[in-house]
Fold this protein.
Amino acid sequence: MAGRRAGVADLRGSRLLSANAPDALKAALAAEALKLGFDAVGMTAPVIGSERIAAFERFIASGQHGDMDWLAREPARRTDPRTLWSEVRSVIMLGVNYGPDEDPRAVLDQRSRAAISVYARGDDYHDVIKKNLKTLARWLVAQTGGDVKVFVDTAAVMEKPLAEAAGIGWQGKHTNLVSRGFGSWLFLGAIYTTLELPVDAPERDHCGSCRACLDSCPTAAFPAPYSLDARRCISYLTIENKGPIPREFRKAMGNRIYGCDDCLAACPWNKFAQAGREAKLAARDALRAPALDELAALDDAAFRALFTKSPIKRIGRDRFLRNVLIAIGNSGEAGLAPVAERLTADPNPLVRGAAAWALGQLLDVIAFMRRAEVALATEPDDSVRAEWEARC
């Protein structure tokens, strides 16, 4: 299969059974998509609107993408689908509902337990959706002989503007897609095709004067409606950020150890959403509200075993424990101090530094200064030493 290294499936066919009846093909395609487990389907031309392109360019120019350098590479491939694949004539956008069966914010009050973003509580959606997308793409090829490419958040594709153009939803003030039928809980995938398919009418913005998503953000990551500064976003800080969590955001993280659902969960359109029906995307019981002390005890092998098939596995055990230790420091539970104490001897300085900060939040000043004096006598890493010295 060509294009595998770019996360793309390139499928080819030869039979021309339905291409000359585009409306019938479109209806059959939508029916097949729903049968495969997709909840929303729409079609659009391979064009990104000028307003969305301008917003993306401002996002990159201002540096709000942080360390996500891939977003800034080859912008023409991202803002023009035809640059990515010159033969594309239509884009089929598909959505899978992953709406939770409970309010994901409820765990935020359980300070000794971890809040994991809804999308990461089950199997990795990239793998689940790509499998279904490939199946649908093969069906399309068998029916028409057209060529296709499949994308699931792994190539230079602006899924949200395309989904908006295809009528699936609109980009809300939190910059994520909002659907009248599924709220803010849709995973997106795309099939590029050489077929000329009838396009759907774009969805219009239904946010109105609502600010619920903006006002819910713990770190004020939205400088304006429809604008996100990823550098302030807890999802970015806990997943994309490879270094220590900046001090100004640690308290605001609370017990969020992987991602943040606050702006999504605050959306009033969620009242129309049902719980997702894809079984593999359902939350694992072990990841709904795991205990912080149990997560902090994970070595690399245990981490990999617990997060098999999970997107969490990609950040690795050390960054994960960094996040867990910030949550431990925010727990207010003195009983968790021994957990942080143990990790001050971890081989990784990122973990040791977070453990030092956590101890600083859980111990009184005198106890912490005594512990810091011992640590500073042998600690070789400057970033970890800075954590011990910050409260001395």
